[in-house]
Design goal:
Blueprint (H helix, E strand, L loop, with lengths): L8 H17 L18 H4 L3 H7 L14 H10 L16 H5 L14 E7 L3 E3 L17 E5 L13 E5 L1 H9 L6 H8 L3 E10 L28 E11 L6
Antiparallel strand pairs: 1-5, 2-3, 3-4, 5-6
Helix pairs in contact: 3-6
Length: 251
């Protein structure tokens, strides 16, 4: 058998450095993602949930600020996405309708105020899973990700797919729904809402991450990826706090 000579010190060092570089390039969870959950940071409604519901519906070890690292701005965004309080009637702005959100605008970022309670009535054409995001500590499991529900002004299939408002269920509002005996999993919402008229209540939120992909801000150069226009506005109902299926087309 041919004997392989030992590596020269220089060659061994190069191999070690190469292995270290590959290890650093490999996907890994940063120390601040997830940073750990302190139950005292959660809203009282979440603290009141059973351990079983928390384990089933909340991303493991993910606090209300999500995976924001040292970014104060991202922490604020994640906290707004993860809020769980229901809007009171005094919080609801009746002028923020689905038609108002879908109105054409060269730049609608200032047209609506964030963190305002809304109640929208619309037709659901599609329910689909949310992406991997900082607010949910970048989990990939579907059960711990947001659910998107699109709303259209009419059930006419000729309406372009871009003429919609995106509304979102979050893991925390899904857990609270489960405590009320409601199934807000992506699969259940797809089954129960697609092709139906609904009334959705929640809070206004402008998703700047899709600013360059919305019809109303495509010329504003306001950030985010540029994957083409797939929505009318960056304004969302996020989070949804209540869903009511209507018996049919509203009069």
């Amino acid at each position: 058998m041919r004997r392989v000579p030992p590596l020269a010190p220089c060659s061994a060092l190069l191999l070690a450095l190469s292995a270290l570089a590959r290890a650093e390039d490999a996907p890994s969870a940063a120390p601040t993602c997830p940073p750990g959950r302190n139950p005292g940071d959660e809203a009282p409604a979440i603290r009141a949930l059973s351990p079983e519901l928390i384990a089933r519906y909340l991303p493991p070890d993910c606090p209300p600020v999500g995976c924001a690292g040292t970014s104060a701005q991202q922490s604020r965004v994640n906290l707004r996405k993860g809020r769980v309080d229901d809007p009171t009637e005094a919080d609801i702005d009746p002028t923020i309708t689905l038609a108002a959100l879908l109105a054409d605008s060269p730049d609608d970022r200032e047209r609506i105020r964030p963190d305002v309670g809304v109640r929208l009535v619309g037709f659901v054409r599609h329910v689909w899973k949310g992406g991997v995001e900082s607010a949910n500590c970048r989990v990939t499991e579907l059960a711990w990700r947001d659910t998107h529900i699109d709303l259209y002004l009419d059930d006419d299939p000729a309406i372009p797919n871009t003429r919609r408002v995106i509304t979102e269920v979050t893991p925390r509002t899904r857990a609270l729904a489960a405590s009320r005996g409601q199934d807000w999993s992506t699969e259940a919402l797809e089954r129960d809402l697609e092709g139906r008229w609904v009334e959705i209540t929640g809070w206004t939120f402008f998703d700047v991450d899709h600013c360059n992909e919305t019809a109303n801000t495509r010329g504003a150069n306001c950030g985010g990826p540029n994957g083409g226009i797939w929505r009318q506005t960056g304004w969302e109902v996020h989070p949804i706090t209540s869903i009511r299926v209507l018996p049919g087309r509203p009069q």
